Amino acid sequence: MPRVIGWSRYLIIIPIIGLLLASATLFIFGGIGLIRTVIEGFMHSFQGAAPAHGEALPVEVEIVEYVHRFLIGTVLFITAVGFYQLFIDNIEFPHWLRIDSTEELETNLIGVTVVVLAVQFMGVVFTLDADELMNYGIGIAFPIAALSLFIGLRAWSTSRVKISQREIELIDEHAEELIEVRRRSIDTSVDA
Length: 192
What we know:
Elements: H1 2-8, H2 13-47, H3 59-87, H4 102-124, H5 130-191
């Protein structure tokens, strides 16, 4: 049975492949669309005419929407890499992309999710009226605040646990020495 459970961890390859394909799709088609938008912007600026975008959005909004797609692709990629590192094997990546626990994976995902929400809000700034914008902003602010609180409390509790573990390790390292010193002081007081 332990062997079956050990091999079952390789089932995670299925979502890893799906996440990588979805990430690649967002990167490739987003990149192509961004390049097309930039080229159209240059062409229209040299012709002196206003660009004819699909929904008459400012070019800045379209570019922010592409950034939004890239960030979602990044979330998917980080999740795929994190699953691989947690369940299959380590990969040599920069230290900021190294995942050693589900807690680190969650923290990375929450961080990128907050950025995605902020970029999404920037994208709608140009398209909504003031009342709708305020409601939309509040709707995005609450999850960002909750996620920030979650990360802060988790970091605080983790640091407390690490401090406690280090104190225990120090006590264990020096316990024999402390016992010997105490024994000597008792022997010295008895001899006197």
